[in-house]
Structures are given as C-alpha cells and as structure tokens.
Amino acid sequence: MQRRAATAAAAVASAARGSAPLLLLALALAPAQAAAADTAEAPHHTFTLSDLYHLPVPGVWRLTGHRVWDYVALTLFFAAAIPLARRLLCRHVYEPLGRRLIGSALLAAARRRAARGAKAAAAAAAAAAAAASGAATPEGATVARRTTRRSAAAKEDEEGEATAEQAAAAAADADEAAAALASPSCPLPPVPDEIMRKWNESAWKMTAFSTLVAVALAVVLPERWMVEPSTMFAGATRIPLDMWTKPSLLASYALQTGFYLQSIPFLLFVEVRRKDFAESLAHHIITAMLLAASWGTNFTRAGVAYTLLHDASDIFLESAKLARYCRREGVATAAFVAFALSWVALRVFYYPWLILAHTLYDPIVLVALPFGVDPQPYWSLFATLFSCLWVLHLYWTYLIGKVIARKFTKGEIDDVREDKEDGEERSDGDGDGDSD
User: Are the C-beta atoms of residues 40 and 50 closer than 8 Å to each other?
Assistant: First the structure.
C-alpha cells in the first residue's frame, strides 16, 4: 500500500513539475489518482525520448515496416505533393473561374452605374430643354426686348440652347454606354491582380480544409471518441501509448502534417500578409509540432479529433470570402454566420471539453496511475501545446467579434486582419441587388 501511495504521489508531482497551474490541476486530480493507485501492482517505469523510436505500437506499416518511417515518408510525400496540387488548381481551375465570376460581378456593377448615369443624364437633358424652351417663348422674348440688357439676354438664350444641346448629347452618350454594357457581347472587365491573389488563396484553402475534414470524418465516424472521449485511451498500458493504430490514422496524420508543413513557407513568402501574421505563423508551427509529437507518442485519437474540430469552421470562412469577392453579400453573410457559430461551438467550447480536459485528465487517471508509468515529459508537452492553441482561438474569437460589430455598424463584412484594396472598394450603390 505504501509503495502504491508513493507511486501515486510521484505521478502527481511529476505531472505538475515546473508549472504552478499544472500543480493546481494535479492536486485537483489527487483523489482520483490515489484511488487508481490502490489498484495498481505494476512497477513504475519511466520512458525516455529514445524509447519513441522503438515503441511497440500494434499496426500495419506497409511502406517501410516501421511506424516512424512510414509517417515520415508519407508526410514528406504530402508536403511535396500539396504545393504542386495547389499550383495546378490555381492555374487551371480557380483563376479562370474567379476571373469569370468576379468579372461578371464587376460588369453587373458597371451596368448598374451606367443605367443610373443614363437616367440622371436624361433627367438633366429634360430640365435643360425645358429651361431653354421657356426662354424662347414670345413672352420671354418681349421681356428681353424691353430690358436695357438686350445683348445679355440674347447671349443667355444662346447659352441656354447650348446647355440643352450639351445635356442632350451627354444623355445620348450615356444611353449608348449603357446599351454597350448591356450587350451580351460586352467583354468582362479585368480583375485586379490583388483580388485574384486573394481569390486563389481562399479557393485553395476551402478545398484543402474540406478535404482534411472529409478525411478526419472518415477516421472518426466509425469510432466513439467524439461522444465518449475516455475511449481515446482504451487499450493503452503505458505512456507513450501502445494501443492499436489503424492505417487510416496514419494517412490522416501524414496528410495533416504535410499540409501544415508546406503552409509555413507559403505563409511566409506567398500568401497575403495580414495583421495576424505572427499569430498565424505560431499556429502553423504549433500545429505541426503537435501532430508530429502526438504521432510519436501515439496520442493519435486525440490528435485526429482535434484536427476535425480545428478545420471544420474554416470551410465557412473561406466560402464567405469567396462570396464577398463575387459581391454576393447575402451568401457572404450567411456563410460568415455559419462560420462564427461553428467557430464558437467547436473551438471555444467543445475543444476545451473534448481535447483539453480529457487529454490532461484521462492519461493520468486511466493509464499512468493504474500501470505505474511516468506521464512526463509528454503530459506537459501536450498540455502546453493544446493550451497555446486555445489562447490563439480566443484571440481570433475577439477578431470575429470585431467583424460582427462592423456588420452592425457599417453594414458590411470585412476581414479586419487585412487592408481593403482599391479593387475591393465599392462605388455608391454597387452592392444593390447583389444579395441573394
């Protein structure tokens, strides 16, 4: 009994080593840990980082025969293949489609402006003609002859006729321009390069996140992890975890890690530089580290659940951006509402319950204490990385709140992280009729 109590105390102290917040959590877990320790008879064992390579994880490793090298090989493959797929899709799919859709939206806005201009020119011409005809009546001529400024009156008559002619010519030109724009053969206007750059980036991200979510769903749906988080650690007898790893988990992990690895240089050198650049860079690095570390320690079930929660809301965000570039404000607003709701539900509330709480609590209570193993340094590593990501989620939630506030105050949805380009500015009334 004393040896088991000592083991429990050592595990608590080890889990809290070097961190006051973690010490408070460990003290809160102490009753459950002591109860679990009373049933444990296995000797205490401490794993080192060198043990990860030789970790006996059950699974089928078809490429190299080893779980680490299979993961590395597939990750490098995806890290090299994803940029190539991005380039091909941008060149042959996204850009032609974007130029057609955005150009059509710009042409529709130009047609509305031309129609309003023609209407205003016609009204001005009518007013000028009425003024000129009033000056040319016999009564007007009699009054003009009786004044001492006959030459000035004659000059005003001539100017009135000239003004009417100019207004009529302007109205004719406006009608001609409106007719030319309304013609089916009217070419689409050019799309600003910066808008096309943003369109391609958002179209690619929507495709990538949709693919990542679909792969994660294919892995998660047959399991109970999302509704019974404690089953994430079922079958494990040590830390790092030694439970069975399915081939689908390997494919999902390698795809996710390869995506975030290649996202780092793209964020640095290719993508639009936004105000939250530093936070986005930190997010990509932390996510790549988390995926690699969780594969090495076989915390793969929690990792794939995290990726599902992490990527789902981004699909709606990129959809809202694409709709806004096409000036479909109704679609953009609906997509942004879906994004905001899914973000708050998945990243702010469900994420700390499913990932943070169970990743910190269950490995100690269900694995470390019953089997007498030391959870460090893995427990502190995951606690730190997952907590950092949640802090970033809260920061971005604040930015989402600013976008919502701007919608109610200014009536438009703009990305507060970036400056509005000239090509995105709306002329007066351009948004009329664009909403679905």
Answer: no
